[in-house]
Amino acid sequence: MHISDFLQFLIPFTTEELEDVVSYFEEEKVKKNTLLIHQGDISNKLYFLSEGIGRSYYLKEDGKEVTQWFFNDGRFMASLDSFFQQTPSLYFLETLEDCKIYSITKPDLDMLFAKYHKMEQLGRLVSIEMLTKVVDKLNAIQFQTARERYDYMLAEFPDIVHQVALGHIASYLGMSQETLSRIRKG
Question: Do 107 and 83 meet the contact criterion of CB atoms below 8 Å apart?
């Protein structure tokens, strides 16, 4: 999905407004397994995934990776707290496939928020969607069985089992690979 299609779907921008807004996004092709942000870095860009899939993850003290979130095409991808608060990221941001992304810097996004009320509306809509998804995931981890969490993930990311290593999926769901294998067979 092109960034202009996504923006126009959510907010009715005029042609001129849309062209101006999109002009601040930089189109990039990013190879599989590229780290966009390292843990501890300050995130200076917000990414829109036009094609591909990515994830955010952190490292436990023993060095084990834990996937916090998956980002698929047609979604924004960021270490949100780091980007908006300009604080060191708690997460790594990585592409899991070759991706086509559109990125925007924080100063450019802030300028667009100030320039266009519609951009503020867009920011609110995207923020609410992201917050809702985070709360849904937290509720799933706390209140659902392993099978229900797996089904929830498939509803959110239907093709993920063909795109992502099972170890990433297991850590995202908060279960072992063995448990994930049993669920997939059952």
Answer: no
- Written as six digits, the tokens of 60 are 């436990």
What is the Cα–Cα distance from 16 to 19, expressed in whole angstroms? Answer: 5
Which pLDDT tens digit goes with each residue over 11-57? 999 999 999 999 999 999 999 999 999 999 999 999 999 999 999 99
The tens digit of pLDDT for each residue in 157-182 reads: 999 999 999 999 999 998 999 999 99
Q: Which residue has the tokens 């769901």?
A: 173
Residue type for 57, please? Y
Question: How many Å apart are CA 133 and CA 106, to the nearest integer?
Answer: 23
Percentages of the chain per state (helix, strand, coil), in multiples of 5: 50, 25, 25
pTM: 0.90
Q: What is the spatial distance between Cα 65 and Cα 172, in angstroms, rounded to a whole number? A: 10
CA distance 94 to 71: 10
CA distance 23 to 31: 23
- In this structure, what token pair is assigned to residue 86? 């300009």
